[in-house]
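Duplicate of earlier report; S-adenosylmethionine:tRNA ribosyltransferase-isomerase input re-posted below.
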Amino acid sequence: MKEPQINLRDYEYTLPEDRIAKYPLEKRDDSKLLHYKAGNITHHRFYNLPDLLEEGMLLIYNDTKVIPARLIFQRETGAKIEIFLLAPVSPSTVIPEIMLAKHPVSWETMIGNAKKWKDGEILKGRVQHLGKEIILEAKLLDRERKLVEFSWSPFDVAFVDIVESSGEVPLPPYLNRKAEEEDKSRYQTVYSKKEGAVAAPTAGLHFTEEVFLAIRKKGVKESEVTLHVSAGTFQPIKVDKVQEHPMHSEQIHLQRSVIEKCLEQEGKTVAVGTTSVRSLESLYWYGVKLIENKGEEFFVEKLFPYEIREVLPSKKEALQAVLDLMDSTGQTEVMGSTEIFIFPGYQFQMIEGLITNFHQPGTTLVLLIAAMIGNDWKSVYQEALEKDYRFLSYGDSSLLWFD
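Output:
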């Protein structure tokens, strides 16, 4: 696959401020749903999704759960310091493990009002958990890396309980508002399970139990991946050469069952959200790495798919390579991380359809959409603007088919 030349200006569009959905609709599946297939666009509601899917299709969604990653501390002087959790460092870099820790943990963070946090100063806060008061302390270990150690007393509760009891929902910066009580449930999919994301996989916010029941009745199969969405998903592209944009690394967990379902799938596969796409495509490239004897570590570098190869392994060959490794090691899941950068010129290996919201102009997410439907992304977005669709995280949705 050859690395193409990309002009970022070709992926910009004008998004009026009043088209950004600041709040969710009262009912999740009342959102609009734009359907794109072979150049044709039709308009629906999300509760019509089952009518647009066919028996035998495979729907794959991301079951990550957003953690309240904004921790607010107040100095004795009254100044507030906000610590935003980004990536775990110690005692483990694996998110599920560190969330269950009952001893000090350290994270790379973003720090608001950092200049007011003196070197050596320990910030303290009081946390109420199940009627018990817990003292939470934060210590700045490395100002340049923004590395913070958290400890608490007593240590009979896990770090996830501390965060759930004291943190605030990490709403995207473009909403320009503080998190409210409603966001605790609405900035979360109904199927979220595994804590670790600092941003929601927003394509899934439209699903309801009624939609799932109708999908199952239709004979559509389901499976799930886990990709813990990082704050880097909101990072704008600031470089002239798009390929030099520093892609965020995100942790992926895949059960054997989803790999087997993808291997056996004869009909179309539909990913719910760009994070599910990145998970599935990364799984394919992990299999390619195994076939090419490039090590057993599950890590997909951002431009690895664009390395020139005479012949690419088939989807089945790549997935079988992963399963063979799992058989030899006794693993029931694979865990790794990915920086995969999907932009125009990319050859999709794992999906035919994508459910996704409408994204900010000039971002990696728009590039992914353009990789899937080519220049038609412009007509899709123009149509959505003309038909009063709501944009971004709490906005409306689309179902796009790879042509």
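The radius of gyration is 22 Å.

Merging into the original ticket.
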